[in-house]
Write a structure and sequence with these properties.
Elements (H helix, E strand, L loop, with lengths): L2 H15 L10 H8 L3 H13 L3 E4 L3 E4 L4 E5 L5 H7 L4 E12 L2 H7 L6 E11 L2 E11 L6 H4 L5 H9 L3 E11 L3 H7 L7 E10 L5 E10 L3 E5 L7
Parallel strand pairs: 3-10
Antiparallel strand pairs: 1-2, 4-5, 5-6, 6-9, 7-8, 8-9
Length: 236
């Protein structure tokens, strides 16, 4: 067994044996001194535990114990911020860009609208405790939320829609896949281009009428999240 794997086993035992969620490991320099190895070997050991979902690197802070990946439920009415708040985690959302467009044939088919339908796009970056974990592209039917790009500055897109337009949104369906991040995504999410991202493509409709309002594509760090699928939209 390689040295870094031995170190990873020791650290894993210590994490499972008493380190609490939210605690930070000693610095790489301290661990290197403790195990009488170089920092590169320490980093490889930590990488193993990050991929196992036991640790989360916090940019500028260190490496935090998380026990396991955050279980994110794909529920009919779940909002990103609400789901994380239930877990005791503080989340924020930053608006990256807005744009107006019309749906081409490919995008129209994915959304479920006619080609040429005017859309409003919102690109957002979601963070947990100030660390970026997910970037989301929202495509909204402009006729249902005119001027949403002038109202929304951050936070929950669906809460903003409910506040300004009185519309409640539910998830109709989601497709879950994976991809490797591009250069821009890796920069935004502060992750390696070798770390797979979980991709969730969701079709959202109005709760009352079932009319199509949104198609969203989220790309989330696979070392932070795992997706929980709830059949038939039940929240149990």
């Amino acid at each position: 067994m390689a040295v870094y794997q031995d170190v990873a086993k020791v650290l894993e035992a210590e994490i499972r044996g008493g380190l609490a969620r939210g605690q930070y490991l000693p610095s790489e320099a301290e661990l290197a001194q403790r195990f009488a190895i170089n920092r590169h070997t320490v980093r490889r050991a930590i990488d193993e535990l990050v991929l196992a979902g036991l640790l989360l690197r916090q940019h500028g802070k260190g490496t935090m114990v998380v026990d396991s990946r955050i279980e994110y439920s794909l529920r009919s009415r779940a909002r990103f911020s609400e789901t994380l708040e239930e877990l005791g985690l503080r989340s924020t959302c930053r608006l990256l860009a807005t744009h107006r467009l019309v749906a081409d044939a490919t995008l129209a088919a994915r959304i479920g609208v006619a080609a040429g339908t005017p859309l409003i796009g919102l690109d957002t970056l979601r963070c947990i405790e100030d660390d970026p974990v997910s970037c989301i592209s929202h495509y909204l039917v402009a006729a249902l939320v005119p001027g949403i790009d002038e109202h929304f500055a951050g936070g929950s897109v669906h809460a903003c829609i409910e506040k300004h337009f009185g519309l409640r949104i539910r998830r109709k369906q989601s497709l879950v896949g994976a991809t490797l991040p591009g250069r821009n995504e890796a920069s935004l999410l502060r992750c390696s281009r070798h770390l797979p991202l979980i991709v969730v493509r969701s079709n959202n409709v109005l709760e009352d009428s079932g009319e199509v309002i949104e198609y969203s594509v989220s790309r989330s760090r696979s070392d932070v999240f795992e997706m929980k699928i709830i059949p038939d939209g039940r929240d149990g």
